[in-house]
Here is the input.
Amino acid sequence: MRKKYDLELTVGIFVLIGFLAISYLSIRLGKLEVVGGAGYTVYAEFANAGGIKPGSVVEIAGVEIGKVKSIRLDNYSALASLWIHKGVKLQDDAIASIKTKGLIGEKYIQVAPGGSDVYLTDGGKIKETESALDIEELVSKYVFGKV
Here is the structure.
């Protein structure tokens, strides 16, 4: 009886360690935030959100500085809520553009830093934005000779 109890206890501990290891790897590889990370939120208003979704990357010079938290309709424009890492400071004259990785790749927001000495704080708004390039619209204009 004692030997059976020791075996069950050993197997139980082994299964628990395996479960914890798989959970840790899932969180790290999925880049999930279990406890809210340090950072702040800024907003950017686009005429056309063109494929940006919550979780899309926000970059400066090809380096990830945050993620898109949410997108909602606001006065017939797309208002994107951007979560920015704590150590990154964005000037109030920065420009946010929607870009595509590759020809048919995922959409992300590219931020071009400004030259101002004034920085955005939590709840601030990026005033200058460039909406997504609509390839279908460009092709139709070219085909029908409106370019």
